[in-house]
Amino acid sequence: MDAELIAMQLFSGVALGAILVMVALGLSIIFGMLGVVNFAHGALFMVGAYAGLYVATLTGSFWWGLLIAPLAVGAFGMLIERVLIRPLYKRSVDDPLLLTFGLGYVLVESVRIAFGNEGMPFPTPPELSGVADLGIGYFPIYRLFVVGVVAVVLVLLWLGLEKTRFGLIVRAGARDPQIMRVLGVDVAKVWLMVFGLGVGLTALGGVLAAPMRSVDPEMGALVLAEAFVVTVIGGMGSLVGAVVAGLLIGIAVSMTALFAPEMATIVMFALMALVLLIRPQGLFGKPGRA
Amino acid sequence: MTASVHSVAQVMAGPAGRRGWRARLAAWRVPLSILVLCLLPWVLPSQALAVNVLIYGLVAVGYNLLFGYTGMLSFGHAAFFGAGAYAAGLGIGQLGLPWYAAIPFGMLVGGALAFVVGLLSIRTRGIYFSMVTLALAQLVYYTALQATSLTGGENGLRGFTVARIELFGWPVDFLDPIKKYYVLMAFAAAALWFVSRVLGSPFGAVIEAIRENETRARACGYDVERSKVIAFTLSGLVCALAGTLFALHLAIVPLDTLSIQTSGMIVMMTLLGGAGSFFGPFIGALAFLLMEDVVALWTPHWQIVVGTVFILFVLFLPKGIWGTALAWRAGR
Question: Which B positions 169-208 lie with beta carbon below 8 A of chain A?
């Protein structure tokens, strides 16, 4: 086993993890604010990938797909929050979860009707195909690009949450929506935006992931479970946790694939079981919230 | 301790005691269920549908013990259903067990799995619990997918057809759907009786107390964690039994048995029928499978209809068909 192969696999893991970070962040942001676990998150990831493919084929450019698909799916997410989830806030926490699960069912089937049951290839944009020599080995340019995009999104998200007025409201609203209402903030509007943002992030993850694999209607099921694993390991509602655990899982899966391919999918669930045993609230979670 | 348990049980039984029909219904719930199950193959459009209602209804009954009565929303019960099915199939095909030994063997494997998953997942509460059960069930799914030599991987488990069985010295043709139905039904009936006894016991009152108010149940001195693990294991045990019946019925275990779709279907059936009611799960399974059959006649995309109906139920009829009917009858 030479060092170059290990470095390449490690980097592959970072790219895989970067996608997971997008999905898990969306899940965590929505949960932290609204207290809702979006079980349609995986399906929306898949819808994002299909939307990206559709726009890219229509316009002939991957870049339009990358730009428009997350925005469109995010807007669709806002519609979901407004119409389906808002009536459930006063009810048991299980109800939004059940509803979004049913919604995931409907979304997967709708995509089957529109695009067929079979998977479709999503070609890597020509300007991003090929490999780059970084001195320690050759890396696919597209994967470098994915890591770069996710890094930029993370910085923007951090700036948005920490430095803007909207971010201030979001952080305060996550802690105490009641007080925010008393202070005259339209919390319902903030929740609408946050749900759209979370869905948009997972859709972006879907578009970014698509050229590294193909798109198929079932692609969301595994991603949903992976995102759950990441949020449980990182600590629910913790954004730092989602980023660290996402990268950790990506690297763990990738390295296992190198040494014991048949264990690759299983290893992350084993990691989650381990975290549950040692630290049920997750690596960055606050005790008592788990 | 015992006195307080009885008082909880009496409080639970209180309103039912005043409304006579409810108490009478509850007292006769097992014989009544068995009667309906006996009639099922003759009133439903096909015998294949009847046996599916029997098996999935039983899974939903097991699941209801956890979701409806203990208030824990698991998204991973396909794991126990599938484990029971795979273990029964492997028991017959690989270990050479007779069919009647394969059933307890499957229950043992499924129940043990439920015990381990229960121990891990009850370390989390509420929403986390749902996520952890889903993730652990995916672990089981991918393990079965990878262990091709044992499970057949994507092709499913094959090669354990039971064509003929001996029942107390009598040979029974197991390929005859009606005879097979009644043999399988005997096991389902025993499970229904068992679940009814559990629900009527002091333990049944404790798990309902946990559902209503976990903090208060703890303050009353009940061991909440232990009760949850027991409820989880019992629930998994019933699902595993249904899995063994499923394996005997189909003579093949598809990998899909373990999938997240199966877990979701179990949740949907339970909720459609009415979580937390004795008859709800069977009514839900019947409604779900009938809907699937009817819609599949005019579109292969029946899931879109079923999913939409489910969403509407969550929004407008969260008590399900039976729960809503009960509330409507009580409110008159």
Answer: none
